[in-house]
Amino acid sequence: MERPKPTKQLMLEVCGENQGLLSSVHHGLYETSALRNIYPVLNLDELLAFTASSWKGREARPDNMKQLTESADLYTIFNDVFSIGFPRLNKHKNVSAGFYEKHKAMNPFVEGLKERLSQVSSEADADLRKQLAEKVNKHVFECQYQSEKAMRGGDNYKLVIMRFQNVYPKKGKIVPAFAAEVSKIIGTYPAEYNDSNNPF
């Protein structure tokens, strides 16, 4: 079974064109690439809620997230992140009638998250935990890079230029650029979703 490719417009609607949410989704996708190997058992909305909320959690309380990854099973980690991630996503979500069927096709699972996550390989599980335990990057526009680096005394560790954005932040361009980049990243994930009980 395969789901369609995401589009920029779908990402804009699912995230309600909210810059804070879309930027968190982007940063989470960028920093937790291990999720591409877990996506076959996740709905799109679960992926978005998890990436946004886990990134914000790592930014605000890195020690808490590190402790969670060391002590909890994968289902507990997802449930903990979803407790904030889904209310935030649902608050902004505004899917139009024209995208209703596509959005539904991107979210093929109705329930059974615990059973679905039990199919995740130990390697994918370990990779995700390692990435969640890392401190977040500082994502900047290209025009901000040199001043940010100078403020750090020349240190550019975990300083990432958002090259998909304009060199200078421009009103009306930032949110669509985040949506386009998010759809591009998810578009590289496996289209097949796992509807069997067999590990992948």
Keywords:
single chain, mainly alpha, 2 strands
Describe this structure in words.
- With 200 residues, this protein is mainly alpha-helical.
- It has one domain (8-134, 173-187).
- Helices cover 55% and strands 3% of the residues.
- It has helices at residues 8-14, 19-31, 44-60, 62-71, 74-92, 100-106, 113-117, 122-132, 145-151, 174-187; strands at residues 138-140, 159-161.
- Strands 1-2 form a two-stranded parallel ribbon.
- Helix 1 crosses helix 10 (174-187), helix 3 packs across helix 4 (62-71) and helix 3 (44-60) packs across helix 5.
- The radius of gyration is 17 Å and the shape is globular.
- The relative contact order is 0.22.
- The mean pLDDT is 95.
